Amino acid sequence: MAIWLNKDSKVIVQGMTGATGMKHTKLMLGDGTNVVGGVNPRKAGQKVDFDGTEVPVFGTVKEAIEATGANVSVIFVPEKFTKDAVVEAIDAEIPLAVVITEGIAVHDTASFWAYAGKKGNKTRIIGPNCPGIITPGQSNVGIIPGDITKPGRIGLVSKSGTLTYQMMYELRDIGFSTAVGIGGDPIIGTTHIDALAAFQDDPDTDLIVMIGEIGGDAEERAAAFIKENVTKPVVGYVAGFTAPEGKTMGHAGAIVSGSSGTAQAKKEALEAAGVKVGKTPTETAKLAREILSA
């Protein structure tokens, strides 16, 4: 079992023929991902050879779905074109769209997120500005290194790409059911709560690791959800304990106002919900080990 992505997932790549799309399509194929097509209206009908694997290019997401049965799209499109690419994926009703692109205007994200809702939320959006999603040993969609961990029984949801990789590496000997990087922008599609609910319902996930960061109230809302709905053990880490107050730190969403949104406030909210919170990624991994070995 896994959440949202498995060995049967059929993946298309919007922006596959660009430099970034080409690079990561090759890596995803190397990880065993079933990439069935790319989308570029200017190159429709062509095929791209990835070390002996020929991947066809389609003019639209709809055409790609009709031809291949694709149910996942990963989007490597420049930020000024990303909104249109996501809207196209939503119109085609693809079940999962993973938006890797960073630097997207918040207004554009708000627009395509609202559009997804208007269309009945038939497309789950992960991102934008995220590393993607990986179910180790089955499928890898995005830019997460596929060789730093193995299949296991930990579920991971994280705002930060690099901390996703570090946690996967720290717990590589135990392994992961699925790891989801949700992105750190002020507006994102899939949230901590969405992933927590999915991991709670996944019989092959025994423990959940949740990584947040300063700014906003997503972690506080996740804490309230955990308290009411999650029975599995959850271990947390909040990036930004040493961040200067009032300063934007890396991610556009990491802005602290007064005491609201601080790492300490988030830590306290999570601990009040029964979540063990580490002060560093390594300490967080240690807490996960202790729970699983108890």
Automatic annotation (TrEMBL):
<feature type="binding site">
    <location>
        <begin position="100"/>
        <end position="102"/>
    </location>
    <ligand>
        <name>CoA</name>
    </ligand>
</feature>
<keyword id="KW-0547">Nucleotide-binding</keyword>
<comment type="subunit">
    <text>Heterotetramer of two alpha and two beta subunits.</text>
</comment>
<dbReference type="InterPro" id="IPR036291">
    <property type="entry name" value="NAD(P)-bd_dom_sf"/>
</dbReference>
<protein>
    <recommendedName>
        <fullName>Succinate--CoA ligase [ADP-forming] subunit alpha</fullName>
        <ecNumber>6.2.1.5</ecNumber>
    </recommendedName>
</protein>
<feature type="binding site">
    <location>
        <position position="43"/>
    </location>
    <ligand>
        <name>CoA</name>
    </ligand>
</feature>
<feature type="domain" description="CoA-binding">
    <location>
        <begin position="4"/>
        <end position="104"/>
    </location>
</feature>
<feature type="binding site">
    <location>
        <position position="165"/>
    </location>
    <ligand>
        <name>substrate</name>
    </ligand>
</feature>
<dbReference type="GO" id="GO:0009361">
    <property type="term" value="C:succinate-CoA ligase complex (ADP-forming)"/>
</dbReference>
<dbReference type="GO" id="GO:0000166">
    <property type="term" value="F:nucleotide binding"/>
</dbReference>
<dbReference type="Pfam" id="PF00549">
    <property type="entry name" value="Ligase_CoA"/>
</dbReference>
<dbReference type="GO" id="GO:0004776">
    <property type="term" value="F:succinate-CoA ligase (GDP-forming) activity"/>
</dbReference>
<dbReference type="InterPro" id="IPR017440">
    <property type="entry name" value="Cit_synth/succinyl-CoA_lig_AS"/>
</dbReference>
<comment type="similarity">
    <text>Belongs to the succinate/malate CoA ligase alpha subunit family.</text>
</comment>
<comment type="pathway">
    <text>Carbohydrate metabolism; tricarboxylic acid cycle; succinate from succinyl-CoA (ligase route): step 1/1.</text>
</comment>
<dbReference type="GO" id="GO:0006099">
    <property type="term" value="P:tricarboxylic acid cycle"/>
</dbReference>
<keyword id="KW-0436">Ligase</keyword>
<dbReference type="Pfam" id="PF02629">
    <property type="entry name" value="CoA_binding"/>
</dbReference>
<dbReference type="GO" id="GO:0004775">
    <property type="term" value="F:succinate-CoA ligase (ADP-forming) activity"/>
</dbReference>
<keyword id="KW-0816">Tricarboxylic acid cycle</keyword>
<dbReference type="InterPro" id="IPR005810">
    <property type="entry name" value="CoA_lig_alpha"/>
</dbReference>
<dbReference type="InterPro" id="IPR003781">
    <property type="entry name" value="CoA-bd"/>
</dbReference>
<dbReference type="InterPro" id="IPR033847">
    <property type="entry name" value="Citrt_syn/SCS-alpha_CS"/>
</dbReference>
<comment type="function">
    <text>Succinyl-CoA synthetase functions in the citric acid cycle (TCA), coupling the hydrolysis of succinyl-CoA to the synthesis of either ATP or GTP and thus represents the only step of substrate-level phosphorylation in the TCA. The alpha subunit of the enzyme binds the substrates coenzyme A and phosphate, while succinate binding and nucleotide specificity is provided by the beta subunit.</text>
</comment>
<dbReference type="InterPro" id="IPR005811">
    <property type="entry name" value="SUCC_ACL_C"/>
</dbReference>
<feature type="binding site">
    <location>
        <begin position="17"/>
        <end position="20"/>
    </location>
    <ligand>
        <name>CoA</name>
    </ligand>
</feature>
<dbReference type="InterPro" id="IPR016102">
    <property type="entry name" value="Succinyl-CoA_synth-like"/>
</dbReference>
<dbReference type="GO" id="GO:0005829">
    <property type="term" value="C:cytosol"/>
</dbReference>
<feature type="active site" description="Tele-phosphohistidine intermediate">
    <location>
        <position position="251"/>
    </location>
</feature>
